[in-house]
Specification:
alpha/beta, 10 strands, eight-stranded mixed β-sheet, homodimer
């Protein structure tokens, strides 16, 4: 704990009111789209919002937002550039799309570095697209950001939910606040996830149907906020904030 | 490299003819279902087949096969139990469904341990459900198993393919043989992935349509091999072997 960056991180988040970590125990459940649209929706509600992409293995928010070649300003640290009204920070500002097989400790270091250099300034909400699963990167982020509250994303798939459930159990064991669970990419309604979430004493925030138009609208924020996906998420947001 | 287990691993794989790693740069693309059904299909073709689940973050093959409470025999190492005619080894034989937030080096250690203790004996094919992404666990497995050839699974989603593509580029950089790419969960045909795979000088093994009946058949091998998913994979298998 002698790393001087750890003390800096706390000060970087002093003016950030609420930090929401969007996470899942499993890839492919739409975590990044949920995180990005949650940030856009809060922006549309008049809040000052930041979006931080910590998914080092599959960074996707820059693709979803349709922003590339953003270069942050340096001024006693890094000021996240504005992307569609969001203060936006992602590892891809630096690494772009090169294959980057970071070793575990390199990932931890990169996360500490990113958290230490970024000057978020005043924000109502910072949305974090979390690293996948419950590996080092997730544990490090939890350790470094004590204000974190989780929104957990799953799909109805029993295989996916099984992994998401392991992550929920871990968060509970670590006493990390969980705002609730969103069931995404629903093709056929079933109460399986809903019941289990209730059994775990967690809030089931809502289910979002599979939206065939979503894929084509990624990269174009104007179409994105017109999708059924976004409209459904808009109904769920009051449960989150 | 002084770990005595590293020398043992080589001997454990001496009688294994071909080791196929089923992998993807992104979760949720159906990697585990493809790996499991590939193993079952090779079994149906009369081969001696092993299946090894190294996906520590989201182990799913035991769920797909519908096997639980399998206990391997110990006899100068661990002999993988038979599951539907497959020699089957998974971390879940030991950890079951507890939340297991393994630190990076613990994951590496667990993989080395699993590879060192398992006596595969004579196999025509060993199919490995690989760890997700291109992190430590993937790199370690590549380093430990020099005979590895990759089948890469993607979906048509541009967000997913972007991550898969990074993984392909890394494998190429490391000179790891890639048998080809399977495009899975196809809902609307597009040549986007197919063209890009050709540009990368790789074999496009085929596309597998989204199969609404697949989810319900997971856990029941008899129904699984009757799905359209399995039948399509059956057409692709000759390209792989």
């Amino acid at each position: 704990m002698s790393d001087p960056r750890l003390a800096i991180i706390e000060s970087r988040f002093q003016k950030v009111d609420k930090v929401i970590a969007v996470s899942s125990g499993k890839g492919g459940v739409g975590k990044s789209v949920v995180a990005t649209c949650l940030a856009l929706n809060l922006r549309d509600r008049g809040f000052k919002v930041g979006l931080l992409d910590l998914d080092f293995t599959s960074p996707a928010t820059h693709f979803i937002l349709g922003v590339e070649g953003l270069y942050p300003d340096e001024d006693y640290g890094i000021i996240p550039p504005l992307a569609h009204g969001l203060r936006y920070m992602s590892i891809t500002h630096y690494s772009l799309d090169e294959p980057a097989p970071l070793r575990g400790e390199d990932v931890s270091n990169a996360i500490i570095e990113l958290l230490a250099i970024t000057r978020w300034m005043e924000l109502d909400y910072l949305i974090i697209d979390m690293p996948p699963g419950i590996g080092d990167a997730t544990l490090d982020t939890i350790r470094l950001l004590p204000k974190l509250e989780f929104v957990v994303v799953t799909t109805p798939s029993k295989v996916a939910y099984q992994s998401v459930r392991r992550m929920i159990l871990l968060l509970k064991e670590l006493d990390i606040p969980i705002i609730g669970v969103i069931e995404n990419i629903v093709m056929k309604h079933s109460d399986y996830v809903k019941f289990d979430v209730a059994n775990l004493n967690l809030d089931y925030l809502g289910s979002v149907d599979y939206d065939a138009t979503l894929e084509a609208s990624l990269g174009d924020v104007d179409s994105l906020i017109e999708t059924d996906f976004y409209k459904k998420l808009d109904e769920i947001v009051p449960e989150i904030i």
